[in-house]
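User: Before I run my own analysis I want an independent prediction to cross-check against. Here's the chain; please return only the structure tokens and, at the end, one sentence I can use as a sanity check.
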Amino acid sequence: MMIRAGILQEKEEGKTMFFQGEERAYVRCVIADQIEPTRRFVCRILNQAHLPFQIGEHITVGIQKVVTERQSGTVRFDCILLDSPQ
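Assistant: Structure tokens:
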């Protein structure tokens, strides 16, 4: 499993979607890369209705699937939460 860590920049809680045939809660968020903070990545943290992190806190996620939207060329990561707030 690929792991991404960084600083939480944005979050949208309480969303739902279908993933692998099941309806799941998720949080859409933007994370600034730990190594190169100007690089940001968009992810959906699966099986979470609310994220126990505040904007500006460090977060670590495990990537389950990489999704590329053909129309816009945007890359998004479907992830699971790997840590809890300090």
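Sanity check: The chain has one domain: 2-81.
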